[in-house]
Task: inverse folding
């Protein structure tokens, strides 16, 4: 949500992108240090990437060999993503180190590689993890890649450090990074994207209809799991709704569904203190992650407006979506 970048710039010195388009957005709207990592780069985009990025991180030795000279000629600091082989994330969809992962170079594949010109190593193995996992990541990196650290200028410990969570022990992370820097004298980067957006972005939905079935009554909402919150189906996970409970925990239980034609466009079963009716509003909490950036216009389902609720209790409408947005994505 680049409309909040002026606020975020007070806390972060730059951005890390995963594609040319994200890199261009960071350059245009954030305007500070600009890094990029991608599982693979396209030849027809790489010159533009090299002109925009300060750091380029390669996912494989082959990609480094293919593009490294171009990046270095542009004055870019080049790095490799490595895989520490730890599993601190329970769900494989979000676990960069699950068995057979395509993300990062394994220690055994690094031994025979020509690394002249590589200035940094990037290790990303977390997703919304607490401080013990952050420390475990740094420990594993030192254990498996210590031989390469003296020749580096920087190390990037990636994202997934949920340092804004109330229970995250920030001092533990700080102490571990200080120890690393004292031992190796290297620049250390973190990419706390999830921590920046933690507990933000409520999605407000309204009930359009309540359909009786042979099981639970289904409340049809003006949002869609498949179009607006695909991780509900992909992970899957259960989003929190303010004032709700699990099925049968409160007096009135409903299955919540979306408006698309997909039979499985179902968010889950929730219970409420009061009966739902057409027009009832539900507040889905902490929805900024992987919602706006992963939405689709499947079935032409209308997208929610995007706005900012300011600390002075005023609302700023940032973006409304129209039929033209749907039409122009099609051919």
Result:
């Amino acid at each position: 949500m680049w409309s909040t970048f002026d606020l975020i710039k007070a806390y972060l010195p730059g951005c890390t992108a995963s594609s040319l388009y994200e890199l261009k957005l960071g350059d245009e709207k954030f305007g500070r240090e600009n890094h990029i990592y991608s599982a693979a780069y396209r030849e027809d985009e790489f010159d533009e990437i090299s002109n925009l990025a300060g750091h380029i991180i390669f996912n494989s030795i082959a990609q480094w060999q293919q593009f490294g000279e171009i990046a270095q000629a542009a004055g870019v600091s080049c790095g490799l993503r490595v895989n520490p082989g730890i599993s601190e994330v329970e769900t494989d969809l979000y676990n960069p180190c699950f068995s057979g992962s395509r993300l990062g170079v394994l220690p055994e594949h690094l031994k025979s590689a020509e690394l002249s010109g590589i200035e940094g190593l990037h290790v990303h193995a977390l997703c919304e993890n607490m401080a013990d996992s952050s420390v475990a990541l740094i420990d594993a990196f030192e254990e498996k890649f210590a031989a390469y650290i003296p020749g580096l200028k920087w190390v990037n410990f990636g994202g997934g450090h949920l340092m804004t969570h109330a229970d995250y022990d920030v001092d533990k992370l700080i102490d571990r990074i200080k120890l690393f820097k004292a031992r190796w004298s290297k620049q250390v980067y973190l990419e706390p994207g999830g921590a920046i957006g933690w507990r933000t972005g409520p999605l407000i939905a309204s009930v359009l209809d309540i359909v009786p079935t042979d099981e639970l009554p289904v409340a049809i909402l003006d949002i869609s799991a498949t179009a607006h919150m695909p991780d509900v189906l992909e992970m899957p996970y259960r989003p929190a709704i303010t004032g709700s409970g699990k099925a049968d925990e409160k007096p009135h239980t409903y299955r919540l569904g979306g408006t698309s034609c997909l039979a499985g466009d179902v968010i889950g079963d929730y219970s409420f203190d009061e009966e739902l009716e057409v027009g009832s509003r539900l507040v889905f909490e902490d929805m900024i992650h992987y919602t706006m950036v992963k939405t689709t216009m499947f079935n032409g389902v209308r997208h929610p407006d995007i706005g900012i609720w300011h600390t002075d209790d005023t609302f700023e409408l940032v973006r409304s979506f129209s039929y033209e947005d749907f039409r122009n994505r099609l051919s």
About this structure: Residues 2-197 form a domain with the TIM Barrel fold (CATH 3.20.20.10). The first strand starts at residue 14 and ends at 17.
